[in-house]
Design a protein that fits this description.
Blueprint: H1 6-22, E1 29-31, H2 34-37, H3 44-55, E2 63-68, E3 75-80, E4 85-89, H4 100-114
């Protein structure tokens, strides 16, 4: 069991984008680069600005998939900017607590968009 990196996650995201494109559904889903938001990718403020910049490109009901690595594992955040809703999906059943750093990044990004 080796940890997968952001590049592997990005390749899967690209594949999903191609599938969505074939189904003419690209306008429904956006992606946030996992290398720019995960732990060890700069300060929370820097990562929040990157997320805010990406979310500002939304067109209404579009959702954004934001893979996030808090350290040694991946979780998925699905962000619905227009509705100010975030879903945290963690594949490990014993982890039912929302990662605080990921929560801070999204909340700060929301505040950047509003101001």
């Amino acid at each position: 069991m080796e940890e997968i990196g952001a590049t592997v996650v990005a390749v899967y995201m690209r594949y999903l984008h191609d599938v969505l494109k074939q189904a003419n559904m690209c306008s429904m889903v956006g992606f946030i680069d996992p290398a720019t938001v995960s732990a060890n990718s700069g300060t929370i403020a820097d990562r929040s600005r990157l997320v805010a910049a990406r979310l500002q490109k939304t067109d209404g009901e579009q959702i954004f998939m934001m893979p996030y690595n808090p350290g040694r594992r991946w979780i998925l955040l699905i962000v619905r900017a227009k509705r100010e809703t975030v879903y945290f999906l963690d594949p490990l059943p014993e982890n039912r607590v929302v990662d605080e750093e990921a929560k801070n990044i999204v909340n700060r990004a929301k505040n950047i968009i509003i101001t």
